[in-house]
Amino acid sequence: MGQGEDFAYNPHHYLKHCDAISHLPLPITVLYNQHTLLPKPITMSCSILLLPFLLLHVFLATTLEAAGGNGEWNLLQKSIGIVAMHMQLLHNDRVVMFDRTDFGLSNLKLPNGECRKDPTELVVKTDCTAHSIEYNVAGNTFRALFVQTNVWCSSGAATADGTLVQTGGFNDGDRAVRTFKPCPTCDWEETKLGLSGRRWYATNQLLPDGKQIIIGGRRQFNYEFYPKNDAASNNLHNLPFLSQTNDAAENNLYPFVFLNVDGNLFIFANNRAILFDYRNDRVVRTYPTIPGGDPRSYPSSGSAVLLPLRNLQSKNVAAEVLICGGAPKGSYQKTFTGVFMGALDTCARIKITDPNPEWAMETMPSGRVMGDMVTLPNGNVLIINGAGSGSAGWESGRNPVLSPVLYKPNNAAGSRFELQKPSGIPRMYHSTAVLLRDGRVLVAGSNPHIGYNFTTVLFPTELRLETFSPSYLEPGFNNVRPTILFPASQSKLKYGQKIKVRFQVAATLDKNALLVTILAPPFTTHSFSMNQRLLVLEPNVFHVIGKSTYETEVTTPGSSTLAPPGFYLVFVVHQDIPSQGIWIQIM
């Protein structure tokens, strides 16, 4: 999709004009019949006016279904009671999800008659419903969690011991620090003034020493550390780059941050990036502006990943960043006038370790704003969720993009994108996606308006939970799919440690198509997966143990600069088909 305005072919604009002509009230409740948007009811005069557009929608939907695509969708829960605006997979195979406390009442009651009583709350001062859950992947069950302050548009990361540390939010939660320890009965614990700055739309990045750096937030052109480096010192550090990238729509919120292989931070905001030495508070390098100059950060909301790190034993490890989608300059402001510009259909890729780095531009099958980018165990990237026009923000997106796209970074330029099978559920503003240990992608959320609104809106509040299974999970690949036998899940490993990985493969093994990968599960919200990181461990010793049983030796990353301490998922990948993962802890 290009960047033009969609006014000319969006039937909802004609509905408004049609309603004005007929002087009849027009409900804006809509039904989604798979991929066809059917507004109803419509007057006879309006029906005639809209007939060409409705037929076009039906034609496009039919064409989309006929095109098929790879992968499979499965509905797990018709309702989890809350909107999964934020998600984190933990090392006990539970996923913590939460939305916000000033939405009103959710569809899930807190247990044992518990209620949140907050006289500073803007909507419901006594709330006996949950705004966070813990989802059990294996059992497909969930339980309510009690979040005490407003977590709306917050950030977080899992620490070295597996505790989820979640920071900031809105109103009474903007300086709060919340922790959740993985255990069957654990709940949120909160420190209301745990931060030095107000963190709303900030980004957290794990550091080699196990601490977190928290960067930015609305009107916060600074950063801080958690835990603080020194309790007695000032923990707020000015970062002029954030004020320099602030524009009329901000477009510098939830900055894309990655720990580079040299220990510095790659920080992207709006349409450009720096390499930042946080230890000495200085900019090491300024990268070129993305060609075209359009913004990619919230609310223009593209997405970004650090591509897989390879050749970890080499002296100079290369690092590449990929940024896809977003909204053109001015798109956010135009949504307030009822004009929804087409989302950006480009990706920008840059090798951030090159002496003279340049952006290489690629074109996706269609434009996408508010998409999520999920790194898969085999190193490919799934681009999922989002809209074809508009921007992030209340009622600001249109034309849901229902088909994910697979990006294969090792393919030649021009042949890296593959369209996948479409979902029947629009995932707009406040939708999320995370990889699970079994290789599926968990998809949830979508709430492009204030409150839990299920009627009289274009895109109702979405409480359904589903998974997308990439094609590597198809039964036809079972014979080449590895099964890990050793090491045991939850093993504790050291940096630079040689480990033996034993596995089974039913088919004839191709040693040249064998990889071991480790992946750090991210904290995901608002189209960015914080701390998402995949490293490739190349096998250097290989043994045949018995029939269909093999053993290879790999070396864990040599330092916490390459892989910050914490829990990782280990996969054996054979002919691009990954095993189920096992958990390890690297310290």
Summarize the structure in words.
By secondary structure, the chain is mostly beta strands. Helices cover 8% and strands 35% of the residues. It has 4 helices and 46 strands. It has a 6-stranded antiparallel sheet, with no helix packed on it. Strands 36, 38, 41, 44, 45 and 46 form a 6-stranded mixed sheet that branches. Strands 3-34-33-32 form a 4-stranded antiparallel sheet, with no helix packed on it. A hairpin with a 2-residue loop joins strand 42 (541-546) and strand 43. The longest helix is centred in the first third of the chain and has 24 residues, at 44-67. The relative contact order is 0.13. Its main location: secreted. Residues 85-472 form the Glyoxal oxidase N-terminal domain. This is Aldehyde oxidase GLOX.
Label this structure with key terms.
about 35% strand, six-stranded antiparallel sheet, single chain, disordered N terminus, 4 helices
Put the structure in a nutshell:
This protein is mainly β and 587 residues long.
Low-confidence stretches: 1-67
Q: Treating each run of at least 4 consecutive H or I residues as one helix, how many helices?
A: 4
**What's the mean pLDDT score?**
89
Q: What portion of the residues fall into strands of 2 or more residues?
A: 25-35%
Shape: globular
Tally of extended strands? 46
Global Rg: 24 Å
How can the largest sheet be summarized? Answer: 6 strands, antiparallel
State the strand order across the main sheet: 9-8-5-4-39-40
Helix content: under 10%
Look at the helices and sheets and give the structural class. mainly beta
Q: What is the straight-line distance between the termini?
A: 45 Å
